[in-house]
């Protein structure tokens, strides 16, 4: 009988964008059967053996509560209906299972197996396959042309890359995606179309994963059956090409340039951020970015956090174009002209363009002015700490498939000049790339695609090198005390 020893551990997820682990591992007497079943199914999908395997022993079970639960255990697997012989081969495999229980989401993201050795000697070393391999560096061409070397994920060996892509593009993976995100297609023809689009998008996922410079994870998000144009039309909406209202920039001393700020800061911990919202299939991201900024300004300066109406801007902002896009800088002017913002309760969000039904008598929040902020990310951090959340534009290319971690795609994959999505910076922090013992500064960004996307609705992106243009269109309303 052929024995295989497999060590399975869960990927340590990030806790609400802070990178801080909560608690330590706790020994358990038994393992959740669903976790074992998932791990075995995922392993079998990438196994070329002609025989099914069965688990004959599970040991060393522990759990750790983080942003979800980490499951660590060792399972012994045996081939069924195989010849028994002496000196049976033993293989040791280390797997990583990523768990997001609040999304009913599990994904096998890492496989590292030693070559088979005889029983009693499980320390033999052999070839490994990692999904993805995170080691050394790669040669790439930057936008100027010469070859450069930079520490990041290594592109997978060709065979491993092909196997990984085959799994991502498999119909079983697509079916799991459809079930997880409750997708419904009108016909068999549409299902086939969406499967073809899904397969193309998984190539992007594979490349983003293999070239990721930090700890970003990419996968089959709810947008994985959409073309790039469908995604941009329905779920983005920032329009830099619109004629923009020009606001003054603060003087340098208004950034408190000489002040010390903490290593990490998050306005969610100080009562200045409303729950994550969902713009739906409407290009109104700009409106959510603006209301989030003003909600924070009002809470900080007037002492009350009030969820504000995006639909008012979609319907009544004549400087922008509703579900077809807009700009935060224009929206501030429109709000001042209208006389203020109603609450989300009084002017409910419908994710469609409608006739303006604004009522001045229901205005709850007003603004005094607005400012265009610096592109200096150190100064932006100081402004954030001293003044509140910041409305920004960003290139959302990597966000379509973002699942978690600190995202740091290469600039040729996420050009800082191509801003197409409006979001809100609510904090910043410092993580660590443990493999290289490198610090990973990041921004914490509130998105408007619901809590099932990203890290419960939030995006962490590398801070310090204008990743995806995060610093290129920073603005804020001004609310006086």
TrEMBL record:
Cystatin domain: residues covered: 20-114
An example Gene Ontology molecular-function term: cysteine-type endopeptidase inhibitor activity
Signal peptide positions (record): 1-17
InterPro entries, A to Z: Cystatin_dom (IPR000010), Cystatin_sf (IPR046350), Papain-like_cys_pep_sf (IPR038765), Pept_asp_AS (IPR025661), Pept_cys_AS (IPR000169), Pept_his_AS (IPR025660), Peptidase_C1A (IPR013128), Peptidase_C1A_C (IPR000668)
Keyword entries, A-Z: Disulfide bond, Glycoprotein, Hydrolase, Protease, Signal, Thiol protease, Zymogen
Pfam families linked: Cystatin (PF00031), Inhibitor_I29 (PF08246), Peptidase_C1 (PF00112)
Origin: domain of life: Eukaryota
Every Cathepsin propeptide inhibitor domain range: 174-231
One GO BP annotation of this record: proteolysis
Domain Peptidase C1A papain C-terminal: 261-478
Family: Belongs to the peptidase C1 family.
Protein name from the UniProt record: Cathepsin F
Organism, scientific name: Tigriopus californicus
